[in-house]
Design goal:
This protein is mainly alpha-helical. It has a domain at 1-52 and 96-197 and 422-442: Serine Threonine Protein Phosphatase 5, Tetratricopeptide repeat (Alpha Horseshoe), CATH 1.25.40.390. Helix content is 47%, strand content 8%. The chain has 19 helices and ten strands. It has a two-stranded antiparallel sheet with strand order 1-5. A two-stranded antiparallel ribbon has the order 2-3. A hairpin with a 5-residue loop joins β9 (407-410) and β10. α15 packs parallel to α17.
């Protein structure tokens, strides 16, 4: 994964960023105008590298962690842990905004110029396709950070985020609606999928978008949109290309989110970084949803340090993850159930669980789950998402999609903070610096 860093300095666009900075606070870095295929690959690698490691900060907002108020890094997370978005102090880590648009800005240059400058070839088609997918994914993440979850009844009027689709430094960057942003995301995904010609990159280069990653992103977007027929079709398309899962019953199995895992699809994001890893412990809530004696994920996901249970899933580059097959089986299960195909939903769930549980316990679980009616089976699928995808950046989004429950975060000194059910804080405010640079975000 160090190739990302080594290539980051290859080529960046030379453009005056004064107007762009006015609204997005972006300055392109570098002084080389890309001309060759290699230049544009370097520019796109920089776009990948700018994509932020924001999901650790989202984990702080969930019920997955207890923050160590005595850790040296705690001040950076205290206000996030307390959902104090309105007047967080100056030590608090900001939710990313500019980095997303820097990534998008570089992707836009690739989309606009790669075939003009470097010619039409399979290589430039792949690079351009990846740029479309990266732009789609960046807008998707921004939308799910800073806008309400998709609601078919209100999406056409709910405020979304700024769409950046061209290198036009004079445009007035106004927010689009949630419906408009989803439409653009899906259009970019389709444009990218028409160009991609690589199904898999070798480990070490699998931070890039491929045909499999495009199908996985499509499935996730439709899942969040509640378009169950398309979520199901997309998850099946991705699994048809490769449906392998790590079998944790087999000696030598690696973490499912490891970039060398047989179920890996794309490893771009550091979903649980060292800063949060070193400042947190695993919550009792998360620990208690596993059968600690029979669920093979438990000893692989968690360890002990200084008398506390901590995560083993993050901190290292080898555990970067964006998409993997474990998630796709769960999207397939959720979408099938919501489409009233209970048989496929059950099969998808059990196909995952048989690779995660000790055999005798799996048989007990299979019998129990097979008897569940639709509402209980949906809850089981959501519970399995929480277990399987723990600390990979999914929990905050799942809490937003399903119920927005009350959460309580407590400190050892006895103080506590509550996120109310359906609290407006389930939608994060635009960062102050973003609002200062773009009055349209007020």
């Amino acid at each position: 994964m160090n190739k990302i860093i080594k290539l980051a300095a290859v080529a960046l666009v030379v453009l005056s960023a004064s107007s762009c900075k006015k609204y997005l606070d972006i300055e392109p870095a570098g002084r080389v105008i890309p001309k060759t295929t290699e230049d544009f690959r370097g520019l796109l690698t920089s776009a990948y590298n700018f994509f932020p490691a924001h999901k650790s900060l989202l984990a702080v907002r969930t019920d997955e962690l207890l923050m160590d108020e005595y850790a040296t890094g705690f001040p950076a997370y205290k206000d996030i842990y307390a959902w104090n978005d309105n007047d967080a102090d100056g030590l608090t880590s900001s939710m990313p905004y500019t980095a997303f648009y820097t990534s998008i800005f570089n992707a836009n240059h690739v989309i606009a110029e790669v075939e003009k400058e470097a010619g039409v070839s399979p290589e430039t088609a792949q690079i351009k396709g990846e740029a479309y997918l990266l732009r789609a994914y960046a807008h998707f993440e921004l939308l799910n950070l800073y806008a309400k979850p998709y609601n078919a009844g209100t999406a056409a009027t709910d405020r979304g985020i700024v769409l950046s689709l061209a290198i036009d430094l004079e445009q007035n960057y106004k927010t689009a609606t949630v419906a408009e942003v989803y439409a653009q995301i899906l259009a970019d995904i389709e444009a990218g999928r028409q160009l991609l010609n690589v199904t898999n990159f070798d480990a070490g280069f699998n931070y890039r978008f491929t045909k499999r990653a495009a199908a996985a992103l499509t499935a996730r977007v439709y899942e969040f949109k509640g378009d169950w027929a398309n979520a199901l079709a997309s998850s099946q398309q991705a699994l048809a290309l490769n449906g392998d899962l790590e079998d944790l019953n087999v000696t030598g199995a690696v973490l499912p989110n490891n970039y060398r895992s047989k179920e890996n699809i794309m490893s771009m994001e550091k979903a649980f970084d060292a800063g949060v890893t070193n400042t947190s412990m695993i919550s009792d809530h998360l620990l208690n949803i596993y059968d600690q004696a029979n669920d093979l994920r438990y000893p692989m996901y968690f360890g002990r340090a200084f008398g506390n249970t901590v995560s083993l899933k993050g901190a290292f580059n080898e555990n970067k993850i964006s998409f993997r097959n474990g998630e796709l089986y769960l999207i397939q299960a959720e979408a099938a159930l919501q489409s009233d195909n209970l048989a496929l939903a059950l099969k998808s769930l059990l196909d995952l669980k048989v690779k995660r549980l000790k055999p005798a316990y799996y048989q007990t679980e299979a019998t129990r789950i097979s008897a569940l009616a639709k509402p209980a089976l949906l809850q089981e699928i959501l519970n399995e998402r929480e277990r399987e995808l723990a600390l990979e950046g999914h929990r905050w989004y799942d809490l937003r999609r399903y119920g927005q429950p009350e959460l309580v975060h407590s400190f050892e000194n006895g103080s506590s903070y509550t996120l109310q059910k359906n609290d407006p804080k389930y939608t994060i405010r635009f960062p102050r610096e973003a609002v200062a640079n773009n009055p349209n975000l007020q």
